[in-house]
User: What shape does this take?
Amino acid sequence: MDTYPWAEDDTLPASLIARIDAWDRTCPANAVVISVDEKTGITARSRKHPDRSGRPGQRTRREFEYIRHGTVSIIAALNVRTGQVLTEHTDRNNADTFIGFLRQLDESVPAGTSIHLLMDNGSSHVAKTTKAWPVTRPRFNIHHTPEHAGRLNQVELFFSTPTRRPLRRGRFASRDELAAAIDTFVLAYDEHDAKPYRWTCDGSPLRGR
Assistant: This one.
């Protein structure tokens, strides 16, 4: 298990980004790099009144008041090489749920393939039971991002995609309706839009503020 402690070193973010990006380029054919994390509390909500359609010179107008219908949480695994995503709905964000998802990954990745998992330091990822689970499964290699640097985990980039597309302007009258919309989006994304992310940030500190 690899861990990377945070340090007051301007070169650290750049070196981490370079390493994560290099995993894909140097990853042998019998290995896969998977970025995994949870997205919790996605709200199913509908507007109290319908939108007012736009017209030339005027944008569509949306009622600001809405009704909440509960939340949906998902866990996702991003294949860094292909950009495809495996998701599952979760009722609890704990170690048992996370380990259950790892078992699903274990079954979905062909036998003989080494699995490199990249994850942050969330409580379900560092629990004793989670740390013990890969010990008897040597093909799993666990890599943690530095503390407070979870955005180095590429699955976070994917999470922003459904937020920008179906969720931001969607109307969902129930949790089931929201969950179905997420599933439909992920299936279409994997089939038509999935591609590997490429880092554009070199990790340099912001200057000239």
